[in-house]
Amino acid sequence: MTSTDPSPSGVVCRGLFRTYQLRGSHVPALRGTDLRLQAGTLTAVVGPSGSGKSTLLRLLAGLDRPDSGSITIDGTEISALSRRQRVRVRRRRLGFLFQAPADNLLEYLTVRQHLHLAAKLRGISVRDAQIDTLLARLGLTERAGHLPRQLSGGEQQRAGIAFAAVGPPALLIADEPTAQLDHMTVDSVLDAFLTLARAHVAVIAATHDPAVAAHADQVLQMRDGRIEARR
To answer: What CATH number has the domain bearing residue 85?
Structure first.
């Protein structure tokens, strides 16, 4: 499903450089990274620790700015925005999924309440029927009234995906989304990603899990701050 179509939908990164200060030294994290994420696809980013995966995700999420280069998401160049403007884009057009399932949820809200909160944060109006449809797609209908502590790890992660998917966003960014899950629940999370991709969302996941890479439309191998191979 990957494409080089230069349509404004999806994500385009050009010439990303990012360097950090560490004990008085400059440590390069990204060295001229080019990247295209087509709407409706799942991309896996693989590579050893320190290869630049987390830095790339933080730039895509608008949490950091590149030293140079550009990031365009759904036609908006977020790398040129102020911090306040990037926060607005994150709320309206981006979803982020942390590695630990519980970190994606508020302990005092039910699954359904999370989705209403997500809509409020995005500044959109959603009907109960739309929420019911999203819950059904992600296999959470029977868990809609449950709090996070009443869910399994896989259900928590799928609830986090649902929370991030309201809108839907242009881009969902996931950092090692299956790292803390057993093999029995990984498939349900992968199904949730593919369901979201079919809703015309670009999904990118940094991962060490070969199951995620096996289901991806595009696999990017990173090393020393560069994408050295693509599949």
So the answer is: 3.40.50.300
- What is the Cα 138 distance to its own chain's centre? 16
What are the residues facing 176 on neighbouring strands? none
pLDDT per residue over 3-53, tens digit each? 344 445 689 999 999 998 888 788 899 999 999 999 999 999 999 988 999
| Partners of 18 in the β-ladder | 30
Q: How many domains does the chain have?
A: 1
Range of the domain at 163: 11-230
Tell me, what amino acid is at 6?
P
User: Tell me, what amino acid is at 44?
Assistant: A
Q: Is the pLDDT of residue 2 over 60?
A: no
Q: Indicate whether 5 belongs to any domain.
A: no
Gap between the Cα atoms of 34 and 109, Å rounded = 39
Is 182 a domain residue? yes
Return all residues near 84 (Cβ < 8 A) that are at least 6 apart.
Answer: none
- How far is Cα 192 from Cα 181, in angstroms, rounded to an integer? 14
Is position 2 within any domain?
Answer: no
